[in-house]
Design goal:
It contains 24 helices and 17 strands. The longest helix is centred in the C-terminal third of the chain and has 19 residues, at 352-370. The structure holds adenosine-5'-diphosphate and zinc ion (ZN). Residues 374-376, 391-392, 395, 397-398 line the site of zinc ion. It is found in: Nucleus. Belongs to the helicase family. RecQ subfamily.
Length: 522
């Protein structure tokens, strides 16, 4: 059967979405593929169609049994022969059926894929394998946000399945992760399909809060409003403690919410998941453990209560809303102490590079929080995609006008201080110098002798950081990576500002105030 008739007959769709046809064709031609597309864009079809066209088995490695169960069930309903094998489950009939090439799609956990004997693969190769897909392929990379050791071992199958095209699929788009997938799976000259990550129907917004009962009451009120409208909501919290707190607050006001975190038993978790999918619970309060495989089209709100660890997982989590293309809303609430959690997140990391990576990822999330320019542009930019317009018309910064103020003096101080410190530091050093710190680092570098030392005492260090992020957004400062350290430097535009400011030739530098800055000055 031809591709298009498979699409119509089995899936009931009349046309392919961007990249689907190309990827399917390349797979049929026998080429390795890397498919990087946003959640909900239709990656699964790329490995579901080829086995039906060429009548050979497709192997799909997927990290979660629940994900596989759902897929197998819906494929069976379409009349497609599909089955899954997990390591715990030991169904000899399914396995022996599989090796004869009975199934169009055979889903395996990574553990199971590595445990299957060579004889199994040899038999199945004779019957015909049309592709070996690795779903959620970012799990293979330590630079991804969901590294899984078992994924690393998949490359040994490459040696057995010599001429089978390998297909990596992920919604995580950073360059590092992409390269890692290609090398870890030993891909040969893969066809790379990178879709747009822009989800135009999602509104992005950020709010700063000071932890207090008052704030919690406001949050609960906000969530009540969501519940009053149609569709469902997810509230992501950074800790189990927060999940439990928000959950009980919602219960107190009579909101029927579900709860989901890693410390619950798997039965209770699955039950909540099911009720949420079936619209019996309008709200789910969860840690990020509530993740992959939430294929619910009408999630309208994703709230992050607390700054996420990194933007990769943040974008994937927010991507779970509005899959049906209808307008949906993503709010992030952060509090200042969120930014100080890097050391806490690093506690389990054994190597320096990895610790730096964790810190940098959090810095990027912090930058996102403190942004006064388009959030969408920044997020997409983080994934290497350029949005041509400066105003997306669908984020808080593009939709609200902020109070603006002449910040020439403050910007001058900060730029001059960064320059005086010599350009080999991150943001903390110059800010600490401005604030007049006498830490050992500062005394050792003799920065306490700088004329600027202590001149910025009247603002909190987060205020200065917020200003710095603005100066980055507006092109006065640049962040550069040196090895894996981020350093901050003056851009040519910043140099020009510094020079003309000295002679008072510069028009005033007017910048919008971030909510951080406003709160600080209250
Ligand atoms: P991803 O794996 O990229 O997150 P899915 O493969 O789960 O996305 O697809 C998301 C939704 O889009 C599914 O409901 C799927 O049936 C639908 N879909 C996929 N391809 C098409 C298509 N060509 N036409 C219409 N709907 C599609
Ligand atoms: Zn915008």
């Amino acid at each position: 059967m031809k591709m298009l008739s498979v699409l119509k007959t089995y899936f009931g769709y009349s046309e392919f979405r961007p990249y689907q046809k190309e990827v399917i064709q390349k797979i049929i031609d026998g080429r390795d593929c890397l498919v990087v597309m946003a959640t909900g864009s239709g990656k699964s079809l790329c490995y579901q169609v080829p086995p039906l066209v060429v009548e050979k088995t497709a192997i799909v490695v997927s990290p979660l049994i629940s994900l596989m169960q759902d897929q197998v069930m819906s494929l069976k309903q379409r009349g497609i022969r599909a089955e899954y094998l997990g390591s715990a489950q030991n169904d000899p009939t399914a396995q022996s059926k599989a090796e004869t090439g009975h199934f169009h799609l055979l889903f395996l956990t990574p553990e199971k894929a590595c445990l299957l004997p060579t004889s199994f693969w040899e038999k199945l190769l004779k019957a015909g394998i049309c592709l070996f897909a690795v779903d959620e392929a970012h799990c293979i990379s330590e630079w991804g946000h969901d590294f899984r050791v078992e994924y690393k071992k998949l490359d040994k199958l490459r040696g057995i399945l010599l001429d089978v095209p390998f297909v990596g699929l992920t919604a995580t788009a950073t360059e590092k992760v992409r390269t890692d997938i290609v090398t870890s799976l030993n891909m040969k000259d893969p066809y790379v399909a990178i879709g747009s990550f822009d989800r135009k129907n999602l509104f992005y917004g950020v709010k700063h809060f000071n932890p207090s009962q008052l704030f919690l009451d406001e949050l609960v009120q906000e969530i009540s409003k969501f519940v009053a409208t149609s569709g469902s909501s997810i509230i992501y919290c950074t800790t189990v403690k927060d999940v439990e707190q928000i959950f009980s607050l919602l219960q107190q006001v009579g909101i029927n919410a579900g709860i989901y975190h890693g410390q619950m038993g798997s039965k209770a978790r699955e039950e909540c998941h099911r009720l949420f999918i079936r619209d019996e619970l309008p709200v789910m309060v969860a840690t990020v453990a509530f993740g992959m495989g939430i294929d619910k089209p009408d999630i309208r709100h994703v709230i992050h209560y607390g700054c996420p660890k990194n933007l990769e997982s943040y974008y994937q989590e927010t991507g779970r809303c509005g899959r049906d293309g209808m307008p949906s809303v993503c709010w992030l609430y952060y509090t200042r102490s969120d930014f100080a959690k890097a050391d806490f997140y690093c506690r389990e990391s054994k190597n320096d590079n990895h610790r730096r990576h964790i810190k940098e990822s959090l810095m990027a999330a912090q930058h996102y929080c403190l942004l006064t320019t388009c959030r969408r542009k920044f997020l997409l930019g983080h994934f290497g995609e350029t949005l041509s317009a400066d105003n997306c018309g669908n984020c808080d910064n593009c939709l609200t006008s902020r109070t603006e103020r002449n910040m020439s003096m403050e910007a001058f101080l900060l730029l001059a201080c960064i320059k005086s410190c010599g350009g080999n530091w991150g943001l903390n050093m110059p800010v600490d110098v401005l604030r007049g710190s006498r830490s050992k680092k500062i005394l050792d570098a003799q920065f306490d002798k700088l004329p600027l030392h202590g001149l910025g005492k009247s603002y909190a260090s987060n205020w200065w950081k917020a200003l710095a992020y603005q100066l980055i957004s507006y092109g006065y400062l640049m962040e550069t990576s040196k090895d894996v350290y981020r350093t901050i430097r003056i851009s040519p535009k910043g140099e020009q500002f510094l020079n003309s400011a000295k002679y008072d030739h510069q028009p005033p530098l007017v910048l919008p105030l971030t909510s951080e800055m406003v709160d600080d000055e209250e």
